[in-house]
Design a protein that fits this description.
The protein is of the alpha/beta class. It has 4 domains: 70 residues; 87 residues, Beta-Lactamase, CATH 3.30.450; 155 residues, Alpha-Beta Plaits (2-Layer Sandwich); 233 residues, TIM Barrel, CATH 3.20.20.450. Helices cover 47% and strands 21% of the residues. It has 22 helices and 23 strands. The strands form 4 sheets. It has an 8-stranded mixed beta barrel with strand order 14-15-17-18-19-20-21-22, surrounded by 4 helices. Strand 8 and strand 9 form a beta hairpin. Helix 1 packs antiparallel against helix 2 and helix 8 packs across helix 9. It is elongated and about 195 Å long. It comes from Rhizobium sophorae.
Length: 634
């Protein structure tokens, strides 16, 4: 109530009966009213003070929040502009509302270009690059375009910039049509992925397609083959290329392989598919209608190209190649079958002496199956020790007595019966079993020889692969130690191929064995290409003349003259000479006249089991009809 109205109310209450104002009564009413409202004024004052304090606190909180907001805003800007990825936000009208510095950098945009409200079309026009066609979003048409525009989802877009960079944008479309995009420079990632893909399908040394890529090419070619079209697959293998790596080093071998690849590429031409399948293996896929004439001409061209010498600095290398050929559809209409049959034909080319090509035939498959079965049996034979040694005497012509025996392995198969060495030794070398077999032969021969008289030596053949395994010296030492046999009674026979494989590695091993007192012989002398040169590279204790030189020495003057020359050569070099393959008394007599040191052959005795050795040692001397003084021991 207003003060004036309240006062008039109090005045009316103080009027007496006679109409006069009772001043005392009025005073009391005013004082009473004042006292009633006095407590309200205090409460108001207290409330006002509280409001003032709360207002001050709120002002403080607002200030704190404002400072915190400013800090958060600065932090957001720092994070936004230091992201390694570009960020952009567009509203539902496709106008820019937010972006960071990395976004501008990726697309070469200026600060003026990315002002708020700029449209996507405006920015795209200013970008120094074009969008990849494969990554462009599909055009929206028809009545559903509006609904599609507002549907949420993720889109990928890709931009090829003028400077070669590739920018990928991952666009998240929100339900209201606005979008948030993250942008990244994927140039290095894309190049790395392309490099990985390339390496997964290509040989890094030659740049040729690898086995995986070649299979894909064969698959595609066979699928697209026309009914009257033939497809030839050539599987090539460089003959004895391992010896180049061993003698000249892997780096030199790699450079020669690069030259080989270039020559084969030139021969194959761009119309044929060429690949490197392995270390020294290549393959060519040829299509056409005139097979096998086309592929035969191709094989001859490759052989001519590879027949020329290869050079690395001043070093010269000569190579030969073996090839296996399979033709679709006759030899198979599936990739695996065609590759397998070409490989089978290659195996036959190598088994037939290398340096040639062979076309696949059905008989080859049957032979390969037999070979696989023989390989399985051979592995079982190594495990079960199904071998035994026979011994052929070495006969000293000057002393007219047996001076030693050559150990010759025999395989007694439980089903096949006696398997000739020529049937399983090459296979053992090819599949890597010859090292285990050779180790067994060394131990058994030394054990048997330890039971013979002291003057009887034992000769054991050693293959090139045993030298390559780096375990030969240990195997020899262990065999001698186990048998308690003197090293001077052991003679190791090697062929020229041992030296051809890796002369630099073989010579130290030979010298180490010779220093122990073990005798080293060159077997099959005269059958190789460089036998004389190898005689000068190592001081052999003996040379063994191959039996092919013995057959005609009695009736053929030229053969006799060659034999005499070799015997004189051995004498001049201080090496004993053993002639193999002596089968008649006439041959023995002639060799005795030429003062040959030793002979070996069926005229003395065929190889015999170990139980016959005592009987052989007890036989009387063979008489060739010539008596001569013994030569000084070498």
């Amino acid at each position: 109530m207003k003060a004036e109205a309240l006062f008039w109310q109090q005045c009316s209450q103080a009027v007496t009966a006679d109409g006069s104002v009772d001043a005392q009564r009025l005073m009391e009413l005013v004082i009473a009213t004042y006292r009633v409202h006095e407590s309200d004024y205090g409460e108001i004052e207290r409330s006002a003070e509280t409001l003032l304090r709360e207002n001050h606190r709120l002002r403080g909180n607002i200030s704190t929040l404002s400072q915190a907001f400013d800090g958060q805003k600065k932090l957001f800007e720092i994070i936004l502009n230091n992201l390694p990825l570009g960020l952009s936000v567009f509203d539902s009208d496709q106008r820019l509302t937010l972006s960071n510095i990395r976004f501008r950098q990726l697309f070469d945009l200026t600060d003026e270009d990315v002002i708020a409200g700029a449209t996507i079309a405006d920015l795209t026009a200013k970008m120094r690059g074009t969008e990849s066609a494969s990554a462009k979003p599909g055009r929206r048409t028809g009545r559903h375009s509006s609904a599609n525009a507002r549907s949420s989802g993720i889109r990928r877009r890709e931009w090829l910039m003028d400077d070669g960079r590739i920018i990928q944008s991952m666009v998240t479309i929100l339900s209201d049509g606005s979008n948030i995009s993250i942008h990244a420079d994927i140039t290095e990632d894309r190049r790395a992925a392309e490099r990985i893909t390339y390496l997964a399908h290509h040989d890094p040394l030659t740049g040729l397609p690898n086995r995986i890529h070649f299979r894909e090419q064969v698959d595609a070619t066979l699928t697209e083959r026309k009914p009257d079209e033939q497809i030839a697959l050539v599987h090539l293998n460089l003959d004895r290329f391992k010896s180049i790596n061993n003698t000249m080093g892997v780096s030199v071998g790699d450079k020669i392989l690069q030259q080989v690849a270039e020559r084969i590429r030139a021969s194959a031409g761009s119309e044929n598919s060429l690949a490197r399948l392995g270390s020294d293996e290549f393959a060519i896929l040829q299509t056409g209608r005139q097979q096998p004439w086309n592929v035969t001409a191709l094989a001859e061209q490759i052989r001519r190209e590879l027949s020329g010498p290869f050079f690395h600095g001043e070093k010269q290398v000569e190579l030969s190649v073996s090839m296996g050929i399979a033709v679709a559809p006759e030899d198979g209409e599936e990739t695996d079958i065609l590759l397998k049959n070409a490989g089978v034909a290659l195996s036959h080319a190598k088994a037939d002496g290398r340096k040639r090509e062979r076309f696949f035939t059905g008989e080859m498959e049957a032979q390969m199956q037999l070979r696989h079965a023989l390989e399985a049996d051979l592995r079982a034979a190594v495990e079960n020790e199904e071998f035994e040694l026979h011994y052929q005497p070495l006969y000293d012509l000057s002393e007219r007595r047996i001076c030693g025996f050559e150990a010759l392995i025999r395989w007694n198969h439980p089903v096949r019966g006696r398997v000739p060495p020529m049937d399983f030794i090459p296979l053992a070398e090819e599949v890597g079993l010859v090292v285990d077999i050779g180790r067994w032969v060394l131990r058994r021969a030394c054990n048997d020889a330890a039971l013979w008289p002291e003057g009887i030596k034992i000769a054991v053949n050693v293959s090139a692969i045993q030298f390559s395994s780096s375990e030969l010296t240990r195997d020899v030492n262990e065999a001698l130690a186990a048998a308690a046999l003197s090293p001077s009674r052991l003679e190791l026979e090697i062929t020229e191929s041992v030296l051809m494989e890796n002369l630099s590695e073989v010579l130290p091993i030979l010298h180490a064995l010779k220093e122990r007192g073990i005798r080293i012989s060159m077997d099959d002398f005269g059958t190789g290409y460089s036998s004389l040169s190898y005689l000068s590279s190592f001081p052999f204790d003996k040379i063994k003349i191959d039996k092919s030189f013995v057959n005609d020495i009695v009736d053929n003057k030229e053969a006799h003259a060659i034999m005499r020359a070799i015997i004189l050569l051995g004498d001049a070099l201080g090496m004993r000479v053993t002639v193999e393959g002596v089968e008649t008394a006439a041959q023995l007599a002639l060799l005795e006249c030429e003062e040959c040191d030793e002979i070996q052959g069926y005229h003395i005795s065929p190889p015999r089991p170990v139980c016959d050795v005592p009987h052989l040692l007890s036989l009387p001397p063979k008489n060739g009809g010539v008596r001569r003084l013994p030569k000084a021991k070498r």
